[in-house]
Amino acid sequence: MSKLFPSQIVVSFFCFCAACHAAPFGAASAFNLVALGTVNGGGSTVIAGNIGTSADVEGRIAAANDVTQASTVGATLGSDPYGSLAGGYAIVAGGGVTTHSSLNINGGGNVYAPTNSASYNWNETPRGAVVSTGPDPINFTGLRTALDDLTLQLAALTSNGVTGAPTPPGGNPSWLVLSGTSTTLNIFTVTAAQFSSSNHPLDIAVPAGSTVIVNVEGANVTLGTGIYFNGQQEGDSNNDNGGILFNFSSASALSIDGQLDGAVLAPFAIFTSDNQVGGNIIAAQIGLTGEVHNIEFDGTLPPPSETPEPGTILLLGTGLLFMAYIGGNHRRGRQLGFHRLTY
Questions:
Q1: How far apart are CA 201 and CA 187, in angstroms?
Q2: Which of 72-86, 139-153, 315-329 bottoms out in mean pLDDT, i.e. has the lowest?
Q3: Whole-model pTM?
């Protein structure tokens, strides 16, 4: 019978941790706005895969079909954790860029546009060049399938946080408080009415640095006011917005009328906004938006079909190392093993 040595367990644990930090949305992780295109699923049928924003987008944009309108793109690309996945592109437009206006590319980068009727100003180096031939740099069919699966997997997670918790000291009694205590992953489920009401803005009260998943139920969803994080409105410098993901697995229409900072996964929805948003915005189609800030999601998503309790990942790794090292029960250590992330 083969033995499992402590060094092998260390390697397995290292691989597990490395997988935790893989790009959570695949190639879409490197883009500020992503329009996935026509999809059927989640109770919705949404046409097109266009991006039609007229506001400044600090990050990159990618559309399965046309980019019909845009302004300034790519002003803050220097610190992207997954920027290398963009392949050097600031704009990927599978159906071409059909606007006749002039687009500013402020952070450098190429443009993929099989058909193009726009002119470009590369205001920073390295300067890019419009690419009009060759294969699409993003496999939108595969990406759409993976993200359709992901949104449904996340929606099936069991909540480990409390929706409607007591208002924290110094808080506003009108808030709908989402309270979680996990230092790793806090999961909440809210209805479209709870998410949208301007009478009780959400306050997400969790340990700083933890990943937050907010599953929002409903087909037609509107955010009517800004969202708070630990008592302060999102957008403030002390917020931890890179670890928040809003998941809309059943939405066909998503309208943001208040400031929202945090990743949005709504692969079956038409997304529009008249306010500032910040994060990876992933939808079937993206209409007009307010200014879009480049805040890439840096949280850690759980493996499929797993909902870790507070400290589960840390305890799992250290517990196995401890058993293997002092207990000598090699067979038991081998049977437990590790589950690796597949996203």
A1: 18
A2: 315-329
A3: 0.80
